[in-house]
Automatic annotation (TrEMBL), chain A:
The lineage of its organism: Eukaryota, Metazoa, Chordata, Craniata, Vertebrata. It is found in: Chromosome, Centromere; Nucleus. InterPro entries: CENP-NAC/CAD_complex, Chl4/mis15/CENP-N. Keywords: Centromere, Chromosome, Nucleus. Belongs to the CENP-N/CHL4 family. PANTHER family: CENTROMERE PROTEIN N. Its main location: nucleus. One of its GO terms (cellular component) is chromosome, centromeric region. It comes from Umbra pygmaea (Eastern mudminnow). This is Centromere protein N. It comes from the Eukaryota.
Automatic annotation (TrEMBL), chain B:
This is Centromere protein L. It is found in: Chromosome, Centromere; Nucleus. The keyword Zinc does not apply. Its main location: nucleus. It holds the Pfam family CENP-L. GO terms for cellular component: chromosome, centromeric region; nucleus. The lineage of its organism: Eukaryota, Metazoa, Chordata, Craniata, Vertebrata.
Length: 334, 392
């Protein structure tokens, strides 16, 4: 009888603990490895007992770490909105870049990464939405690949975008080089866009959401109107509200917006307050970092504009999130 | 064997019942019953205008003198006015030396770096600093007996909980301030080895730093005012300690939040320390009423924050006093600079937290003081807040 070593058991236990009970059945049923044994499992048991049953089943089958990482990938692909996702952009495409297919990419990526670091465990899987999912567990000359802290990278073939989760600074150059070589691009750089929801980051970076473009001749804003004295006040206010709404949608988009959690602005600009002469005349910038955060930042900002918390015209810095497709900026004076 | 029935003097029991009777009528155990309504009105009025009498008082160097000079119709009416002038740490003689000179450094170490939850406390009836040993035993017994009544207490540790009440000498600034009382609840493991150090599971601090002199003088001699309670530890123990104090010293507790004005005060007071002690950053967080709600955090470079502070200082102020106008101008400067960049008015939201390397404060009444330099100033400000919040 084959048996699992302790570290394999530990990895499996950790993974099962991560998956909520109600999602276990669905996740396990997608795993071809377990197809025949699925009927023997009782999903009505408590999670603790269930885990014990599963452990003994795997022990019998002699399940390896590689098999368990398969299950982890199934779970992560189905539930990608965990951890922090960072967007990256490939540039300087070579001539043959658009012809790279999945098999070619797979071979090239594995070969290049193993050449850079021979102690890695790589798994590549293609998802239904054309995205290639890459899971890498990193090791070194002295340690085995660490399966508890894997890096995930998601790349859509024929697009210049890569989304990465759980990458340490140490491994960044290695992954970048392998990706650049496998995709036939010249270089890869930070897109300064990050968030907890992969779908939101992807939609924003690949412009896959409903946008509203400014009309050619924007209507003059109603801001400076005198206080209405006629009986049509309500009508006027309705027009005002409508205008605000339009300005808000032009700035941040229409309909459902990608869920970003944060936007960070590093201010390296001069102090701007006319009443403070001392600081205004100062040459050095007034340094600071401003961070906006919300469960759905773009929605909050759009509401701020449409409800009047933000003054119009809208500051160019805020719509830059959707226009420049990033949420980390350094602001300097021209 | 200690029991929960702790009243040792007969007259105590009688007085307590009388006081409770009094409370039932006008919720006021203090001898200012008749003035109560008038005082409250006055208090409300002054609360709305916190800038009253700034000009007259700014020139006064000592906080206490400023108070004594104000003879106003009701002696509590001007309380909010204190916040218009606050003493700041003297730049030439850093507070560090001062605090550790006055107070045992080991005791100061117990106060810093903890996250404190704040409450206000009404004056304690017949509390004696000389009896803290007895109180320790009584509180221990009370906790043990409450536990037997089935009240919530952390499981597994209940056997070895021991209260230790001590006096922290030197934190009080003025003669009238009662010395600070420090409470610790220690847990001994069930099978403790002889030399095992007991684990501190709860700490509390009852303090009064630079309390309103006229208010303190107006108290009958049998009352001790320690208006500020800081607690750190499990909520269930906080409830037990509070209920023991309530029944033993006939006092009341209430939650003490730190409002936007006081958060602004803290921001300014911390920034002032920068030349002597690097604050590393000044961080302010606002919550804006958008849907969904949005938090805006502004983290300012310490040098820049100091430059801004320096530019809003008024020329005719004395070295160690800062005024509410300066504080308001300081925050307004930050908000204006922010508005010029983002067209968003931070004043539409509410200030939630303020922090620097010297400490952090949250509007819900949580404060952490990371540096001993700042203890006296912070406790003084909080003592004021507690006295203001107290029902009269």
């Amino acid at each position: 009888m084959l048996s699992m070593d302790d570290s394999t058991k530990f990895i499996l236990k950790r993974l099962i603990r991560r998956i909520p009970l109600q999602m276990l059945q669905k996740t396990l049923s997608k795993w071809t490895y377990l197809r025949e044994d699925l009927d023997s499992l009782d999903f009505k048991q408590s999670k603790y007992i269930f885990t014990e049953c599963l452990l003994s089943l795997f022990e019998e089958k002699g399940t390896t770490v590689k098999r368990i990482t398969e299950l982890e990938m199934i779970y992560v692909i189905e539930n990608p909105n965990q951890g922090m996702w960072h967007g990256f952009q490939l540039s300087d495409a070579e001539e043959d870049a658009p012809t790279v297919d999945l098999i070619q990419f797979k071979e090239q990526f594995k070969a290049h990464l193993i050449e850079l670091n021979s102690h890695v465990s790589i798994k590549i899987k293609k998802h239904t939405d054309e995205a290639i999912w890459i899971r890498i567990a990193w090791g070194s000359n002295f340690t085995n690949p660490n399966h508890l802290k894997p890096t995930y990278a998601v790349h859509h073939l024929q697009t210049p975008y890569v989304f990465v989760n759980g990458l340490s600074l140490k491994h960044k150059p290695l992954l970048f080089q392998a990706l650049v070589l496998a995709t036939r691009y010249g270089s890869m750089k930070d897109a300064h866009l990050s968030g907890r929801k992969l779908t939101a980051i992807r939609d924003l970076l690949m412009r896959q959401y409903q946008q509203m473009f400014p009309t050619k001749h924007p209507r003059p804003l109603q801001e400076k109107n005198p206080v209405p004295t006629n009986p049509k006040i309500e009508k006027e206010q309705a027009v005002n509200t409508e205008n605000r709404m339009q300005v808000a949608c032009e700035a941040f988009g229409d309909g459902k917006l990608p869920e970003l959690q944060k936007a960070v602005y590093q201010l390296e600009t001069k102090f701007r307050d006319d009443s403070n002469k001392t600081l205004k005349s100062r040459e050095e910038p007034f340094r600071g970092v401003v961070e906006f955060s919300s469960t759905n930042l773009l929605e909050s900002l759009r509401h701020a504009v449409s409800s009047g918390i933000a003054a119009t015209p809208v500051s160019a810095l805020l719509p830059a999130i959707t226009q420049k497709r990033r949420n980390r900026f350094i602001i300097t004076d021209k | 064997m200690w029991t929960t029935n702790l009243h040792q003097h007969n007259d105590f029991d009688i007085l307590t019942t009388e006081l409770h009777h009094g409370k039932a009528q006008c919720s006021n155990p203090l001898p200012i019953v008749l003035e109560a309504n008038k005082v409250m009105e006055e208090l409300n009025r002054t609360l709305r205008t916190p800038c009253n009498n700034v000009k007259e008082r700014r020139s006064r160097r000592r906080y206490s003198r400023a108070m004594r000079s104000c003879v106003e119709p009701t002696y509590l009416g001007y309380t909010p006015g204190h916040q218009t002038v606050l003493r700041i740490p003297n730049k030439r003689t850093p507070k560090t030396r001062e605090v550790t000179n006055q107070v045992d450094p080991a005791q100061v170490a117990l106060l810093v770096k903890k996250q404190w939850h704040l409450s206000y406390v009404t004056p304690l009836y017949q509390f004696r600093h000389t009896m803290v040993k007895t109180y320790s035993k009584e509180l221990s017994a009370f906790i043990a007996s409450e536990k037997q009544h089935g009240l919530a207490i952390e499981i597994g540790r209940e056997l070895g909980l021991k209260a230790n009440i001590s006096v922290v000498n030197g934190l009080a600034e003025m003669e009238r301030d009662a010395e600070t009382v420090f409470i610790q609840i220690l847990s001994k493991p069930m099978f403790a080895v002889k030399d095992d150090v007991p684990n501190v599971v709860w700490s509390g601090l009852l303090t009064c730093v630079n309390g309103d002199l006229d208010y303190l003088q107006s108290l009958p001699p049998e009352f001790v005012s320690l208006p500020l309670l800081c607690t750190s530890g499990s909520e269930s123990l906080t409830v037990l300690v509070k209920s023991w104090f309530k029944k033993t010293f006939d006092c009341c507790f209430g939650p003490l939040g730190i409002n936007a004005t006081n958060l602004q005060w803290l921001a300014a007071l911390w920034t002032v320390c920068h030349p002597t002690r690097n604050i590393q950053y000044l961080k302010l967080s606002w919550e804006l009423p958008t849907q969904p709600p949005m938090d805006v955090t502004y983290r300012v470079d310490p040098e820049c924050a100091w430059k801004l502070w320096d530019s809003v200082r008024q020329e005719n102020t004395t070295e160690d006093c800062i005024s509410i106008e300066e504080v308001t101008n300081f925050i307004r400067g930050l908000q204006t600079n922010f508005f010029r960049h983002f067209s968003l008015d931070l004043a539409a939201g509410s200030l939630r937290t303020v922090s620097t390397a010297l400490g952090s404060a949250h509007h819900s009444g949580k404060i952490q003081i990371a540096s001993p330099d700042f203890i006296i100033t912070a406790l003084q400000l909080l003592t004021e807040c507690a006295l203001l919040k107290m029902p009269i």
